[in-house]
């Protein structure tokens, strides 16, 4: 049994390293899927259990496909270019102001459309804005990545991991705001301040805001923009009624895409071939790896330790759980970490206050590393499509300055709230 457990942890660890380091520049999903296949091949995880584990991500798959459809059709119809022009015009030739606009828009998109939408939908728009403004794109692209996680617990719909973690114990919207409004404000503000300080040298200059022929928002682009707005409303309604978000998101993305393609008399292949489908096997591989770890018996032990610590000191348990999950999210990605945390907190019968601290760690902690969250991985994929490369070390150098202060302030804000 010990050798089997050690083999499972070894395979999961190597797969995680592969996802982070990407040896030989192979895509992330190759390593996650390879790890999952090895667990099955060495009889460490029955194939039926692996299939069931991958099936747990069905709602996430539908959610991602819907968002990627919206993003791709918006890009093709020129919505990003139009948004870029508006951002540059409102920046008043100031690089610093343009950064603030990007951060503010990213905050709104994350809150109402989820952090994955910020990575998939907003990142190409921001890259287009920096090309229009003729400024170095990376500071503004970093803003997209960091706000995608920092604002991801304002609402339940802001991050699919939120629904995974609370499961059937999801608080009402008012209860959610009670626990997370103040910590969210602390996270968003602290992340902005630390980014501005860390990137200050890149934001000193101006932008090229010379007036030219004003771009026109085309009919199809307006339809996509309206579709994104409707999607936000649908997701809020679905969240309020306790529904899964995957099918509604997929339906909205599919309907908007179909309308635009029919009006433009275009083939669906024009959209389908440019979607980053590789993210789906990546997510499936992560779910299977987590199931393999479940079978090692480590989760019941974690639940027992959490229950014991909470009984001795709820305050210490809250801080410790938040920090541990923040670190763990960077080691194995926050989506599987959310699954592990959900299993552990529910088995330990943890209070909403402790679960809230865990969620903050799962959502905000990934701002430390480039593979900490699915949103950041999607952000990386979007960057590569534009020809930009951000290495793990470069992201870590910025993340180690930005994430810890935001995490500490958010957990402190949570500690001020009466359970």
Could you outline the blueprint of secondary structure elements for this entry?
Layout lengths: L1 H20 L6 H14 L5 H9 L2 H19 L2 H12 L4 H19 L1 H19 L4 H13 L9 H7 L6 H26 L20 H22 L5 H19 L4 H4 L6 H16 L3 H15 L1 H19 L1 H14 L4 H13 L9 H12 L6 H24 L4
Helix pairs in contact: 1-2, 1-14, 2-14, 3-14, 4-7, 4-12, 5-7, 6-7, 6-8, 7-8, 7-19, 8-10, 8-19, 9-17, 9-18, 10-18, 10-20, 11-12, 14-17, 15-16, 15-17, 16-17, 16-18, 16-20, 17-18, 18-20
Description:
The protein is an all-alpha fold and 419 residues long. The chain has one domain. It is built from 20 helices and no strands. Helix 7 (115-133) packs antiparallel against helix 8 (138-150), helix 8 runs antiparallel to helix 10 (173-198) and helix 9 (160-166) packs antiparallel against helix 18. The two termini are 41 Å apart.
Structural features:
mainly alpha, 419 residues, 0% strand
Main β-sheet, in a few words? Answer: none
Mean pLDDT: 84
The stretches of 5 or more residues where confidence is low (pLDDT under 50) are none
Tell me the number of strands.
Answer: 0
Q: How many distinct helices?
A: 20
The oligomeric state of the chains shown is single chain
Strand content: under 5%
Number of domains as seen in the coordinates? 1
Distance between the termini: 41 Å
Rg calc: 21 Å
